[in-house]
Amino acid sequence: MTNIPRLFVSAPMVTGASVRLDEGQAKYLTRVMRLGTGAIVRAFDSVNGEWRCALEIAGKAVHLELLEQTRAQVALTPLQLLFAPLKKARTDFVVEKATELGVTHIQPIITEYTQTGRVRADRLTALAIEAAEQPERLDVPAVSDALALVKALDCWPLNVPLYYCDEGSEARPMSDVLSASSQKGAALLIGPEGGFSPRERKMLRALAFVTPVTLGPRILRAETAAVCALTLWQSQVGDWREPPYVPEI
Question: What is the DSSP letter of 28?
């Protein structure tokens, strides 16, 4: 089944249901993949696991007929990424890699040194959907509209630790902090190019739920820092210890 197309669908998936595909998905299956009626497709909806489906083409309407559930839905450990938007291609890179690395919620934040405040959550959601289809995820991370840093931290749940990557001040290595953590969920905060302002650093370090961490002796680009922090999280307290999913052939 590794060569069988895999799609995210927004409609609920239940045995015997028929799900109409949007225009982009329909064109991909029929024109790019050149599939016809009866072809097998895999689909998931973030709620009901993954399903084996049969393609049904009737004129311009393209549907998936749900045959059987092949994987039950599994909830990921809640992991939120807060990051300052970068230039378009680099923001896209962060969203794509965050999705591949198991983030469940992506929250763009606006800081004093943020390069751009223009963020389209709908476009980033579409990018996250595409990124979730390839690595066998059963869900798609939520993508929120951009918020000011102060507003994003307002009413923060105290039982959710926020690891704040701060390369401009003294902090413990992130790997050491995570090794001592028994939390089942967390959030990671990545700043913009140029880092956080002195005022933001002072505010963050005064919050009880925030733990400053460092990613090593080098100053990393923002998108590199995001991938590095997420990789450390997954390797030490995430789901990387679980056996990989291998589709049936």
Answer: I
Rounded-to-integer distance, Cα 181 and Cα 212, Å: 14
pLDDT digits (tens, 9 = 90+) for 210-245: 999 999 988 899 999 999 999 999 988 888 766 666
Torsion of CA 114, 120, 122, 124, to 10 degrees: -40
In the sheet where 18-20 sits, what is the strand order? 6-8, 40-44, 50-58, 61-71, 18-20
d(CA 100, CA 94): 10
**Does residue 175 contact residue 218 with C-beta atoms inside 8 Å?**
no
Q: In whole angstroms, give the CA distance from residue 231 to residue 102.
A: 10
Q: Is 190 exposed, middle or buried (0-12, 13-18, 19+ CB in 10 A)?
A: buried
Distance between CA atoms of residues 241 and 233, nearest Å = 12
* Burial tier of 213 (Cβ tally within 10 Å: 0-12, 13-18, 19+): buried
Q: What is the average pLDDT value for the chain, to the nearest integer?
A: 91
Give residues with Cβ within 8 angstroms of 156, minimum separation 6: 162, 207, 209
pTM of the model: 0.91
Q: 101: which 2 tokens?
A: 């690395």
Using CB atoms within 10 Å of the CB of residue 239, give its burial: 0 to 12 exposed, 13 to 18 middle, 19+ buried: exposed
Domains along the chain with CATH numbers: 6-71 (2.40.240.20), 79-237 (3.40.1280.10)
Q: How far is the C-alpha of 34 from the C-alpha of 83, rounded, in Å?
A: 39
Whole-angstrom CA distances from 110 to 115, 149, 153 are 9, 6, 12
Residues facing 61 on adjacent strands: 58
Provide the 8-state DSSP code for 240: T
